[in-house]
Please model this.
Amino acid sequence: MTQPRRSIGFLATGVALLALCACAQQVELSTGDGPGRQSAFFQEFPTPLFEAIASGCQGELDRLTLVSERELLCETLPTPEAAASLILQFGGDVEDLPTLVTTLEATERDEGFAVVTEYFYRVPQLGGEVAEVRFAEPRVQRIIQRAFTAAGGTPIL
Model:
């Protein structure tokens, strides 16, 4: 296994770290862009990056959705402690557990691809609506930056 392949594989590890987060940190309740969103530019489609996310979303508590050949979504159940914290802190519904959502999407540009990844907790509410809880996790952000670079991308700040 080459070094870049291992670095890209760490992206799945970073996403797993998020599932363990007990959310005792500063979080933001939002419905749009915010913390947890990063992007990079690639001259060629980053197949290894998409493969790393897809392979990291194969656990018993994971659900992988291939939205298209350029977009995927991974949903993971958090730990029981993190789920309880999210439900209590954000008025969630105990009958519909929160999930950690990780997305990866590539959009073709003139000379390559803009790739955006984001992560957030989706917390179903008692009234039937869904809250998106977004937060910055510096360790995961560094892992994503390294994965983008290892896959040949240039991070977009």
Notes: Residues 3-20 form the longest helix (18 residues).
